Amino acid sequence: MAMSEQLRTNIYNELNSIVLIDPHTHIDALNPASDSLADILGYHYYTELAHSAGLDKSLIEAPNITDRDKVQLLLSNLEPIQNTIQYSWFIEMCQEFFGLEGTLVDESNWESIYNAAQTQMDADNWADRVLKKSGIEAVFLTNDFDDSLQGFDTNVYIPCLRTDDLVFHLANQDVRDRLEVSTDTSLESIADLRQAVATLFQRFKNNNAKACAISLPPSFSPSAISDGQAKNALEEILAKGTQANASHIETLARWMFWTITQQCETHNLPFDLMIGVNRRVYPTGVFQGQDLYDSRVSLIQYEELFNAFPAVTFPISVLASVTNQELASYAWIFPNIVTHGHWWYSNTPTFIEHDTAARLEAVPQTKQIGYYSDMYKLEFALPKFRMYKRILSKVLAERYVIDRNWSEQRAIEFGSTILRGNVESVFDM
User: Fold this and answer.
1) Which of 208, 238, 283, 361 is the most buried (most CB within 10 A)?
2) Cα first-last separation, the chain
3) Distances (CA, A) of 33 to 37, 44, 111, 117
4) Closest by alpha carbon to 104, among 116, 92, 121?
5) What is the 3-state composition of the chain as percent helix, strand, coil, each rounded to the nearest 5?
6) Could you tell me which residues come within 8 angstroms of residue 112 by beta carbon, excluding any fewer than 6 positions away?
7) Angle CA(120)–CA(122)–CA(126) in degrees, nearest 5?
8) The sheet that has 368-369: what strands, in order across it?
9) Cα atoms in the 13 Å half-sphere on the side-chain side of 386
């Protein structure tokens, strides 16, 4: 075995033994693992790729399709995507959890894999077994502001307040109604709205929340808005709802975003910013397969925010390598900016390797969170994190041990900081 390959293997084996915390997922804490193989193959990566390769949306989303039939349908149409990393995730799950031998699931063996998966998933302790095998001790959730936060262990399934609705959808009567009910506050004034936000944050903090998060469109530029401007905007929205003038909706969105950031400062919560998604670029695509990134986004749009809140930590996720270079530069000089994972369309090995190497070489080692799964079901943690750990091991072996004469142990300690240590320090674990 060549030296670099052996180094990669050694480093990977050590990093793979570290028990991790996943700092961003979409797990349902009351139903965290899959109920059938359809939950895995129903993940939007597979449905959107199958649709892109020619499978009709009406078949994928047929209203009365059984789990077994959906799995058969998708597996019968996945040959065009066998080259993708997403297919590799599926195969690795089948190998590790369901006894697959080989590297394909097709017409010849899908039923046996389906049945093996069902047997495993029907077990009472399936979720716990998945976490243990995946080397994960806790996962961050993505919680709507009115989620109950009850009925689960918040030390394992850690709440995170998602604020998209609060910022961008307050013109919707339903959102305002939900906010009033969840905070026992009548929203008649800016003071009421500020109190409602404070009440939300206190409830989340009381339930072990460790972060606040939001997904932001390329057009958004946060800025400070006076209470007077916000008052006028709120009055218009209360009177006209979604028919209010767009400038008023935008004004209130900016005020809400600023108010939420102030609460992050008050409660010492990092504010995860996921920047750059254009929604419904492909409106006839499959569920969750309609959105794309926009490379025209720039972090200069957040200059006022980063300077106004030096005490708030902003873990930032971006969607393109061009923006990653900008992110690495901002994290280079701003103490409150942390690089965060490899999100969505950046979550493929070529982009991860390039972006990881750039971050490792440019950003203080204490300001990088290597990876999060972004998963909806627990089974995805294993293949996604292993993918990242393989890439991280390669970069550490080649660029640090070989190129810079670091010891193997020093490289492993660096990798451990990126994988685990910084999650603990940034999110005050």
Assistant:
1) 238
2) 40
3) 11, 16, 20, 12
4) 92
5) 55, 10, 35
6) none
7) 60
8) 160-162, 211-216, 271-275, 314-317, 337-340, 368-369
9) 19
Among 20, 35, 27, which Cα is nearest to 157's?
27
Whole-number Å distance between alpha carbons of 341 and 343: 6
CA 164: distance to chain centroid? 14
DSSP classification of residue 143: B
Residue 17 DSSP label? T
What 3-state class would DSSP assign to 91? helix
75, 116, 37, 23: which is closest to 369 by C-alpha?
23
- Could you tell me which of 194, 287, 190 has the C-alpha nearest to residue 233? 190
| Per-residue tokens: 164 | 């998209």
Nearest to 78 by CA among 116, 26, 40: 40
Indicate the residue type of 267: H
* Tokens 């995805």 belong to residue: 380
Task: Give the position of tokens 């990126």.
Answer: 418
* Token code pair at residue 212: 């606040």
One digit per residue, the tens of pLDDT, for the chain of length 429 reads 566 889 999 999 999 999 999 999 999 999 999 999 999 999 999 999 999 999 999 999 999 999 999 999 999 999 999 999 999 999 999 999 999 999 999 888 999 999 999 999 999 999 999 999 999 999 999 999 999 999 999 999 999 999 999 999 999 999 999 999 999 999 999 999 999 999 999 999 999 999 999 999 999 999 999 999 999 999 999 999 999 999 999 999 999 999 999 999 999 999 999 999 999 999 999 998 899 988 888 999 999 999 999 999 999 999 988 899 999 999 999 999 999 999 999 999 999 999 999 999 999 999 999 999 999 999 999 999 999 999 999 999 999 999 999 999 999 999 999 999 999 999 999
Structure token digits, residue 182:
């969840």
β 157-158/160-162 pair status: unpaired
Q: What is d(CA 232, CA 250) in angstroms, rounded to the nearest whole number?
A: 12
Residue type, 92: E
